[in-house]
Amino acid sequence: MVDAAASAPRERLPRAFQNLFVSNLATNLGDGVIRTAAPLLAIRLTGDPLLISLLPALTLLPWLFFAIPSGILIDRIDRRVALRIANGVRVVLAVSLVVLFATNSLTIWSLFLVAFVDGACETIYDGAIRAMMPSIVTKQLLPTANSRIEAGELVLQQFLAAPITSLLFGVAVLIPLGANIGFYALAVILALLLPKQASGIQFTGVGDGVRPKWYLQFVDGYRFIMANRMFRTLWFFTTFTGLCFSAATATFVLFLVKQAGLPPALYGTFLLTGAAGGILGSLFASWVKRRLGAGTAMAFANLVACASLLLVGLVPVIWAAAVGFFLSSFAVLIWNVLIMTLRQSITPGAMLGRVHGTWRTLLWGTMPLGSVIGGLLARISLALPFEVAGGAGVVAALIFFRFLRSLPNAEDVDNGDRPVTEIGPVGLPLED
């Protein structure tokens, strides 16, 4: 299916988005350091695959407990303040990690605690930045804006932070851990510069005094999702696929180092293969959507992503791991951009925090279970998680292929919000 608007003049992303983009880049520098350093610290502290698999599990577990409360918070306060809260706590975590390592007090258990609290902060940060997007970008530009956000995360976390962190880790662990303090502090400062339009006030009515009590909003997101058959089917399907991915990749660092023979110092460099695939996916996401339609693009992206996991398990050597990681990252990026755009378009702006939180409570809240399953399978064989989870993902992708192809384009969905083009520069509706 070819979009008739494919040849129309393109809109430009607004300045408010550029401000948000730069602020997000600073956060991604910090995320890239901690996500590369944490597994490298873990394999220094223990060689047990099950314990190592608990690290990504504990990073995702907060989504099970805090995603909905974070969503309520995001829908009730200035969303810029939510960003500052999340990154402010991360500054404290970064300082704590430096102190623990410098005093030889770091254990696998204290690393678990840092990972858990950092994951809790992520529930606020991730929900806030996703909820900001529809308040500053039109539906037509949402795929492009989401692609920029995803590409920025990949460039800084994997192309820049990952290899540099890995190399510096071999020189002196305190160098990347110390730099992480500055990255999150910079992100807090940049969040202070975001324009009022990013606050979400035009949707949430912050300060109007008419909203229900916060504890009455816990099930709002669940009710909204379950009321839409297409939305809830997509929710459950995405959760199963996420479970497969978390199971397959929970012990990826061990698979690369122990099975494929990758030197630990090159772990961050290897991640560049996934970053390259992801960046390419971000560049093609809008193009593929315009040419095929969002649904068809998502169906093929999901199938390719799961098949790539299976490839890694069936051919457990370094070149196959690189090819599989590249292809899965390429496909996952396209999937992420399009499903986020669709969710932002279906959900009214005033409910984005709660719906996003509810969605990820199930999606990311079940991923720790996948990580534990992956860790148990890895005790038998380091390739087995990719074989089992990749195979299950491929079967599900084929069963739901027709359903995914039926998903609509974001611009064809009306959620009742006023278009962004009718919103003034300070985030309030323009007069008719």
Assembly state:
single chain
**What is the chain-wise order of helices and strands?**
HHHHHHHHHHHHHHHHHH
Summarize model confidence as the mean pLDDT. Answer: 84
Strand element count: 0
**CATH hierarchy class name:** Mainly Alpha
Which structural class fits the helix and strand makeup? mainly alpha
Q: Can you give me a brief rundown of this structure?
A:
The chain is mainly α and 432 residues long.
Give a written overview of the molecule:
With 432 residues, the chain is an all-alpha fold. Helix 1 packs antiparallel against helix 7 (174-191), helix 2 (49-60) runs antiparallel to helix 16 (367-380) and helix 12 (267-292) runs antiparallel to helix 13. 75% of the residues lie in helices and 0% in strands. The two termini are 36 Å apart. It has helices at 15-45, 49-60, 62-76, 79-102, 108-136, 142-171, 174-191, 201-204, 220-226, 229-249, 252-259, 267-292, 294-314, 318-346, 352-363, 367-380, 384-399, 401-405.
Give a quick set of tags describing it:
mainly alpha
Question: What's the structural blueprint in terms of helices and strands?
Answer:
Blueprint: H1 15-45, H2 49-60, H3 62-76, H4 79-102, H5 108-136, H6 142-171, H7 174-191, H8 201-204, H9 220-226, H10 229-249, H11 252-259, H12 267-292, H13 294-314, H14 318-346, H15 352-363, H16 367-380, H17 384-399, H18 401-405
Helix pairs in contact: 1-5, 1-6, 1-7, 2-5, 2-16, 3-5, 3-15, 4-5, 4-7, 5-15, 6-12, 6-14, 9-15, 10-16, 10-17, 12-13, 12-14, 13-14, 13-17, 16-17
